[in-house]
Amino acid sequence: MTDQQERRRTATLDYMQAMLGQLRGMAEAERCDMLAYLIEMAYVEAGDILRGERPSRIVDEKRDRAS
Fold this sequence. Notes:
single chain, 82% helix, flat
């Protein structure tokens, strides 16, 4: 992945995480507990990917283990 592609990917993930944070707040305000929880999990996942703590694709990981 080129440096420009990596910057674009990071910017996209940052934006997604920000939007998820807003959606979580909306779900909490409407007392939609399960929806808020699921959105929170997506928010955390985006942060983990940004920090390099989790791969963005699990398909590759499963395929590699099967080999």
